[in-house]
Amino acid sequence: MAAGRGKEGTEEACERKKEPEEKDEDEEEDSGEEEDDSDDDDDESSEMVGYLEDPPTEEERRLLTRRLFPSKVGGRPAWLIPKNLPTAVPGDLACSACARPLRFLLQVYASRGEHRPGAFHRVLHVFVCTSCQPNEVKVFRAQLARENPFYSSEVPNAKKIAKELKKTGDKDLDLEALCCQDCGLTREAGAESSSCTDCQRCTRVNEPFAVFQEREISTSGATVPDEEDQAEEVAGPDVKGYRPGAGNTSGDADAEEDSTVEEVFTEGVAAEAGEAGGKTQQDLVADADAAIASAKAKGASEAMLDKLREYRTKVSENADGAIDLTEQNVFDEWSKENGESDDFFSKFNRYSLENKGHMLRYAFGGEPLWFCGPRRLLKDPPPCQRCGGARVFELQVQAQLISLLGGSHCADRLDFGTICVYTCAESCDPLEGTHTYAEEYGYVQPEANDAWLPKA
Cα dist. 424→140, 201, 269, 363, 442 in Å? Predict the structure, then answer.
């Protein structure tokens, strides 16, 4: 996965192919220990996390187009290969559950050129169905060798590309005949309009187009909590836009028993509210009342009840405000006292504390960090549809993204705990006459609801 902003990330990917300088034998012997340390560093940095950049300016938006190989959320897809795109509704870009149009959520540039030459340029496109609650998802993989018919093998010139786009009115002439001018998804075959059927409908009824706010994803190496830290009691991350119930979403399926619980009493009481389209103020107050009643029935201390009442007062006065982590810890304490724990969610909170504000986790060949115990994927993902080989975990989209994008008509329909993406372990190349874009496997773990509520 290329780190950094569009141009820099592409430069990093292109520079990987440079031959290393030769060393004499003495240098190799002297540096042996350093090389071992370097290998350790590589292992530590193999897991990455993604963060949203600020909304781009008009000039910066030109750096999020396909010839600069961006990782980004929203806007129009920067299709890697400008032909044989996933087919329009009712084809590839229709929801498998309800047949309604999918929405482009994000794409990640993740080169595998060191392992397969044909995957030097490699992009994963993630689409969601906002009509389904929780959302359904589809993922498409496209890849190219460094030498290909569409792009130069040299590092792209960002200034030159931006200048050319400005001159053409920000139109990609290769995609213009294939894609909707409004949402960037594939138009129906033979369509006369430059807009897809769904965007035409939005225009007729005066609705905004179903496009998420465009934001670049920047990446850095993840900080993974040490094993000895796993049993320590920690609070969740204090980050701007963080919302309990919307932001902290997973834990490791192989986590050891751990009595520490971070915000297990989340969905009913500290659910996302306001701009993220969660529970109403009345709902939150009702849930707080239920928590107090349950705590009394289980013999909670008066001090704990006072904290719960204080929380109820706060949500009754301002349910739209992001809940402070001290309120979270009230429910942590209550849950630990009463045995209502979720080790998976607890581990995710520790991970989030170390990687504050991340909305994407990348760990090719690793394991997902599940949102919570219920509804994890407990079996192997289905094999690759193209080659029949095994799929491996590659990345997951965290529900922090929901609150970060909250406030728009489209973002208000996002509903998931975590989206886990599994891809072909070999990043197989397309065969002659097959689809250019290979469909991979996306698994949506929904946010837990009643499963986390204390039982009276």
Answer: 11, 37, 39, 14, 12
What letter represents residue 427's amino acid? S
pLDDT at 163: 94
Spell 426-452 as b/e; 16+ CB within 10 A means b: bbbbbeeeebbbbebbbbbbbbbeeeb
Give 21-70 pLDDT, tens digit per residue.
Answer: 444 545 444 444 444 544 444 443 489 999 999 999 999 999 999 999 99
Nearby residues of 83 by Cβ (< 8 Å), 6 or more positions away: 174, 178, 436
* Distances 178 to 143, 185, 203, 222, 358 between C-alpha atoms, Å: 19, 8, 20, 38, 34
Question: Distance between CA atoms of 73 and 241, rounded to whole angstroms?
Answer: 17
How do residues 336-377 score in pLDDT, each as one tens digit? 555 556 788 788 888 888 898 999 999 999 999 998 888 999
Residue with tokens 């005949």: 177
Is there a cis peptide before residue 70, judged by omega within 30 degrees of 0?
Answer: no
Work out the angle at residue 394's Cα, subtended by the Cα atoms of residues 373 and 14, and round it to the nearest 5 degrees.
155
